């Protein structure tokens, strides 16, 4: 993201990036791989979650929400691939640019908030089972939480919906999409600070801390209860979620904040690193199906049936329905 307001402010590093064929090719290849895995993995996941998994517990509702955001990203990535292969030349107009950029960032932050919600659901089911059982409106709360997530993310990202994110670069004969971001998108430096603070701290750092607290508490509880198989699965789930945060979300959000501060106040740039981190952030949509596998017994069973792996673990066989509902949604 560049904090430029006119084409004369484009520095040599930025122009060099747009002419760097190798970087563009690497990003395109990563997007192609992600698109294929995303559409296949999440297409199978949404079919299992919607039509082969019952009942629709809060965890399943959150997983459906997460899968839908991933599929939206997978549908948008081919446009980004075309843009990269054309040398950063956007030909689909400003409205389409704004829409696809919104899809890109909505996926990231809705995924973060949804993983937090799944973590809270696991925490209540394992660590606070009495509170969990007493709440008879958990499904309604889950649906409302999903709507609240979308409302919060779209509210924060509202400037992306109302701004022309395209930028003409006559010296290269291209029109970029969200690669040169005008300072005029927001009226003041204070508004920019609030925008960046909300994205990085409210939509990333706070959910990350809550999610890690929930999974650490779950692992500690299962360890004290000596439920070895449940503990192992909880640990695997925590590891996958941690990988998604550390590999996909953390670099992008940290570089977004650092690059924006350098650009706004010091006229320096980390744009190349930020561009690559934005690319790797899409990998979350490939890892999310592993979250479903470790978080839902029903999902595991149906997937094994599809793959002709009918044998269940001993823990899955002897676990009571009530315990499994509390743990695996």
From TrEMBL:
Q: Name one GO molecular function term.
A: thrombin-activated receptor activity
Q: Which residues cross the membrane?
A: 26-51, 60-79, 99-120, 141-161, 191-216, 237-262, 274-295
Disulfide linkage: 97-177
- Record has Transmembrane helix as a keyword: yes
Q: Where is the protein found, in the record's own terms?
A: Cell membrane
**Major subcellular location class:** membrane
Task: Give the membrane topology.
Answer: Multi-pass membrane protein
Pfam families named in the record: 7tm_1
Q: What family does the database annotate? A: Belongs to the G-protein coupled receptor 1 family.
* Record's protein name: P2Y receptor family member 8
Annotated organism of origin: Cyprinodon variegatus (Sheepshead minnow)
């Amino acid at each position: 993201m560049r904090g430029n307001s006119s084409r004369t402010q484009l520095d040599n590093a930025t122009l060099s990036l747009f002419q760097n064929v190798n970087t563009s090719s690497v990003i395109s290849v990563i997007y192609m791989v992600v698109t294929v895995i995303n559409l296949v993995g999440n297409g199978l996941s949404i079919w299992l979650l919607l039509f082969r998994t019952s009942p629709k517990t809060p965890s399943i509702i959150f997983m459906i929400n997460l899968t839908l955001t991933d599929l939206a990203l997978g549908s948008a990535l081919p446009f980004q691939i075309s843009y990269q292969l054309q040398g950063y030349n956007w030909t689909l107009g400003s409205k389409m640019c704004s829409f696809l950029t919104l899809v890109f960032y909505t996926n990231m932050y809705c995924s973060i908030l949804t993983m937090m919600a799944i973590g809270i659901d696991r925490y209540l089911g394992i660590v606070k089972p009495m509170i969990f059982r007493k709440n008879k409106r958990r499904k309604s709360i889950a649906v409302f939480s999903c709507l609240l997530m979308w409302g919060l993310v779209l509210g924060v990202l509202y400037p992306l919906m109302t701004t022309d994110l395209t930028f003409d670069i006559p010296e290269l004969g291209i029109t970029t999409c969200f690669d040169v971001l005008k300072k005029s998108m927001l009226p003041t430096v204070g508004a920019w600070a609030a925008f960046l603070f909300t994205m990085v701290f409210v939509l990333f750092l706070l959910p990350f801390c809550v999610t890690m607290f929930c999974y650490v508490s779950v692992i500690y509880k299962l360890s004290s209860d000596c439920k070895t198989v449940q503990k192992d699965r909880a640990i695997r789930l925590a590891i996958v979620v941690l990988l998604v945060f550390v590999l996909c979300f953390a670099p992008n959000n940290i570089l977004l904040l650092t690059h924006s501060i350098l650009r706004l106040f010091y006229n320096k740039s980390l744009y190349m690193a930020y561009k690559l981190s934005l690319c790797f952030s899409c990998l979350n949509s490939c890892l999310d199906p592993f979250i479903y596998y470790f978080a839902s017994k029903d999902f595991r069973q149906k997937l094994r049936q599809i793959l002709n792996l009918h044998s269940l673990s001993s823990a899955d066989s002897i676990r009571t329905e009530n315990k499994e509902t509390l743990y695996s949604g």
